[in-house]
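Annotated sample (chain length 525).
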Amino acid sequence: MITTPGVTPPDADDEADPGPGTGAAGRVQAVRHHYAHRGDRATVRGRAYTVYLIALFALIYLVPVLYTASTSPPLLAVRTPTAAAPLTCALALAGCWGAQLTGRFWGPLVLQPFLLHVFMSTDMSPMSYLGTIARRRLAAAGTAVLLAAITAAYLTTDLFDRPSTALPGVAVAAGVSVLAAVAWLWGQVRAVRDNLLLASAAGGVALLVSALSLAVPDGEGGLWLVAGVSAAGAALLGRAAFRSIRTIDLARLARESARASQARTYAGTGTLHHALDLYRPEPRGLTSALIRPDGRLRGHLTQGAVRALRTRGRALAAVLLLLTGGAVLTRGVAGPEGGLSLSLWLAGAIAVYLGSGWVSETWRGLRDELTLAPLLGEWWGGTPARTLAWPLTAVATGAGLGGALALLLPWPLTGRPAAHAVLLAAGSVVLVLGARFLREMKLNLPLELLLPVVTPLGDLSGLRIVAWQFDGFVAVLIGVAVLNAVPSAPGAGALAVLIAAGCVWAGLRRTGWAHRGLLYRLRRV
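Output written by the structure step:
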């Protein structure tokens, strides 16, 4: 190639750029190619280290779990294909609802803000650059859900132990994975009303298919029916969802992409809780309800209830989680020791833990108030009752109502006595509240966690960071496992109080508090 002195020859990538007359696919490919070869892209060594971490995790954790599951009795014994059909319908329904909810916050069309800005600045239609991205991501999501569903079924059930249920089980997993992937796109591109209609229709179809599968003389036909209905529903939803890409609100998509980019930055720097805070709904309305007509603030419980009602979606989800978690938790502690009862106990505790965080925004206010104490003096601020009155009352009431409903329903209780079950349930709720306090007092990532932990298997400091990121879940899971190992219910209740007190103390230490200021403030409650 002949070059002129003083003129820089064009780069190979620039020569390959498509001109204005090139099709939309080529222009999209050119933009993605340039962005993929930017200066701050991931290096080969960085990708190799990621592969090393995944392989290390699989070698240390995944392989032993798979081996243990293959040599131990299943957690859920599905003796006949007829009994498996309602379970698979529930799995498909949960996958559809979960994918819709995920799409409302982080859908498959979320891009890097720079890429989206470049695409929006052109004369191309949204379908020309979002359609290809959606197909690629839906294929990846469907594959991931398929592998996760098959792995979970293999670890927890005996569907793959018999040839008569193995092939229908794989078909059901494939149908559920396709349905979940399409529902993920539907949740982002369609309005809230359409998502509610889909959720209601999915629930009705699941009930109908469950009833039909139980009435099928041949038990294997029920699983094939679930797989066929899931695949047909995915095909219908897919066509409607892809047609909706043409009319998507690009301004809303730009806001979602910017928020996702910021959340990704927070997660990459070790502050996942700050990333989750970005997805908290903004409070709306009822501002004047916090003040009495005479100008004074209302009581602690009233303020907490009003603040909860300002985010109605979170409040409704919290109520459902607390009631369901309380019922499942009570069923777990009232059943026989080990097996399914322990799983119900853990699931109920996790549900109550999630509901305790969504029931109020006053946890964040308490954290902000406590973090100012080292700056303004340990005697600064109001009493903890001002911020803790509502969440403690709401969690105790919601979990208590759910537990009472579980005890009053005519279900067989063949495990612990009712008094011991109530004591264990109360101790579990106290443990959950302590874990929630520990999580909400979290600030920035401590630098000491970044120090290497040298072992024969390599640096395992990442495990400490993961444990710190999900410390609330870790405290709940370990606490419930320890309580289950205690032989007496009073001893387990006392131990739950001690664990919760330790979580509270650790949370206060995170905010820089000392014991003298804490004792003084408790005297003012």
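Annotation: Residues 222 and 235 are 20 Å apart (CA to CA).
Annotation: The chain is about 70% helix and 0% strand.
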